[in-house]
Predict the 3D structure of the following.
Amino acid sequence: MESRCKFWMPKKKRFCAIPRLSNSEFCGNHSKRSDDTWVPCSIDPSHSVLESNLQTHLKRCPLLKHKNSLALQPFYKKGINGGHDHHEPDVTSESKRMAVHSMTAPQFIKLIAKIKSVHASICNHIHDSFNLPEACKIWINRSIDCFRKIPFQEKHAIQQASILGNLEKLGAFKSSTTGLSEEELYCNNSSADPSDSPAVVEFGAGRGYLTQMLADCYGVSKVFLIERKSYKLKADRSLRQKESLMLERLRIDIEDLNLNAIGSLQGLPFLAIGKHLCGPATDMTLRCCVGEHGRESKGVAATSYLRGVSIATCCHHLCQWKHYINRGFFSSLGMTKDEFHAITWFTSWAVDADHGSDDGVEKSESDEAVLGNEKVLGMLSAKERGVLGFMCKDIIDTGRLMWMRENGLESELVKYVPSNISPENHLLIGKCD
């Protein structure tokens, strides 16, 4: 540690690991120069370069190279799953907050009443469905995979198992590992019997551990991992050890993915899965698999190949009207675009409030929003804000559920794990006949 650079990287929450220069506390990348300054890269603001090197860097930025390469791929089509208004800028959380704070007291009270009324009338179908299938029990009962050294966290393994268990319960696929011993499960290179199994497309795959469990516990022969970021410690290495399993990882934003143009997926039945698809990523995934671009490709009814969907939603505060899959649903409830964005902002209360607090809980200054001449928002206790936040999440996901049903999927919206495992516990599941 003494020989390493002393530059603190806030996003990674650690010091730079590069050795420092002999005459400095910093490495060559982070040494301060009196005649130069560090500026964010205009292509990828996640990193900075010296201003004097900026023009040279822009010609060889790794993200630029990736974008140029991606644009040549047949499955890339800018904004194909973004919705009709995808070109419009996002509405920021700060803009949503300011819009809520600018409401008069009567407007705010009316909106809260509308949310409660809508929730009471349409959100009584959401039920608990914590389902740990037999096929996954050998996997989740291990604290570490000694054969492949896969990182293991019990709460994530439980969530993954319930996502797959609910899809199995709906009848989208069947277990094929009954009777396998623990060692056979981990050393199996044939993926049980994948001959009649659908392909698997994991959206927002991250490191791919959801697919890893599915590949271990069910018979799959083809896997496609969709993820816009680059990750270390991926499950890809162990997945590729399965001789009968074909794996493709596509580094692309879901918004730009033309699923019908993936050559090796054409003509195959497939399952669409995702664990914690943040905000509009859920809407884009549904549009990608089931929407107008998912239904037609050169005159072929592509949705006939979709066998099932299992998507765990999250981060509803990031949702955008321009991307939302069922705007007609909100309009039919008498809710406007601005009210939709207010509802998405309220959802943050579901996961950041102290839901067990009494009504008299002390509120922070940020909660004491002045609406008109009254501190109406500040009058809500933390518990009340939490309840309201969950109501808003229910309404947003119910609109997605209704859209799935309108598009021919036998669908349900369930709470797939208890809230003490994860408060982000909504699961959209559906299957095609």
In short: The first helix runs from residue 54 to 58. The first strand starts at residue 8 and ends at 9. The chain has a mean pLDDT of 82. DSSP finds 15 helices and 14 strands in the chain.
